[in-house]
Design a protein that fits this description.
348 residues; alpha+beta; Immunoglobulin-like; 5-stranded mixed beta sheet; 8 helices; 40% helix; 17% strand
Length: 348
């Protein structure tokens, strides 16, 4: 009786798990962009092709082995009155087959694996766009030596040109990962790790720190914006102009007044001690993210908040309430002061 009950429960659990797996299979789509199964760069495509090859071989082996097993179970199952079957011990031919065939399958998997290892570890040429990546608790810094630019959390890259990442950390171990472009790479203090990719499809791709690095590890996101070459060059040109103040216009005196007030507050409140508002020749070693063109970014605080005026004001007034543990303190900024700072940051 007990065995019958256990059998029924086991059957129900098996059915439930199969149905759950079927439902979860429907969760994978382009609406969930942090997937490795939709590669958008050549580096990720190499890994995806290797995964496809391995899965195909594994599926073939599974079907053959389980097929033979099921055939043997049903074809040669014991029946009442059957005599004791003849016992055999060893079969040289069979043993050679089940040794050689798996070895050939492993070789078929090993060849593309070794090829993929060499391909992904290739050293990019001088024509590649070099970007220096620095992990901080809990945000990302991106430097473009070729253009003498610095930005944070959102990396702009041109389609069709190889990008060479030279990565390090300013504090603890982090891990740089954009699933649709590249594999994960840990980043360390005082040690450089490297990775490369070429964006093949235009788009905005989310990434995430993939190594636990403190209480805000889950809010250490970044993005790669793959752009057409001419759009990327336009972004570079715009970033290189961000050292100058915007000219005042009679059409928006209130906005310019807020901008001027915000500029003064940026210094008076000490923001300038940790942040730079200039993308070109930005000093290394700044405590906080570079804020040049921050108004054009998609998110604030490394993916924590959508970039809206309201959220930017909230972040300025209470960073610890939004992302506890960050280096940015609460500076006692009033609502009016926050609005002025928002106007200043938006003009950049």
């Amino acid at each position: 009786m007990l065995l019958r009950i256990v059998g029924r429960c086991s059957s129900r659990w098996t059915t439930a798990l199969c149905l759950l797996a079927l439902v979860l299979a429907g969760c994978g789509s382009e609406q969930y962009p942090q997937t490795t199964l939709l590669p958008r760069g050549d580096f990720a495509k190499i890994a995806d092709d290797l995964l496809d090859t391995t899965v195909r071989w594994a599926l073939l082996v599974f079907v053959l082995v389980e097929g033979v097993l099921l055939y043997a179970i049903f074809r040669f199952r014991g029946r009442p009155g059957d005599p004791e079957p003849h016992q055999t011990h060893g079969n040289t031919t069979v043993e050679i087959i089940w040794t050689v065939v798996p070895a050939l399958i492993l070789a078929a998997i090993a060849v593309p694996t070794v090829r993929a290892i060499f391909q992904t570890n290739a050293v990019p040429g001088k024509e590649a766009l070099t970007i220096e990546v620095v992990g901080h608790q809990w945000w990302w810094e991106f430097r473009y030596p070729e253009y003498n630019l610095t930005t944070a959390n959102e990396m702009h890259v041109p389609m069709g040109r190889m990008v060479s990442l030279r990565m390090g950390s300013n504090d603890v171990i982090h891990s740089f990962w954009v699933p649709q472009f590249a594999a994960k790479r840990d980043v360390f203090a005082n040690r450089e790790t490297r990775m490369w990719f070429t964006a093949q499809v235009e788009g905005d791709y989310p990434g995430q720190c993939a190594e636990f690095c403190g209480i805000q590890h889950g809010r250490m996101a970044h993005r790669i914006k793959a752009q057409k070459p001419e759009e990327f060059q336009a972004w570079v040109a715009h970033m290189q102009t961000l050292g100058a103040k915007p000219a005042a216009t009679a059409a928006a005196p209130a906005g310019n007044a807020k901008y001027t007030e915000g500029e003064k507050l940026f210094t008076a409140k000490g923001c300038i001690a940790c942040h730079s508002m200039v993308a070109v020749n930005s000093p290394k070693g700044m405590v906080g993210p570079n804020l040049a063109n921050v108004g054009a970014r998609s998110y604030l605080a490394a993916g924590t908040l959508k970039n809206t005026d309201e959220n930017l004001a909230r972040w300025i007034r209470d960073p610890q309430g939004i992302k506890k543990g960050v280096l940015m303190p609460n500076l006692g900024v009033t609502e009016a002061e926050a609005q002025a700072l928002v106007a200043y940051l938006r003009r950049k």
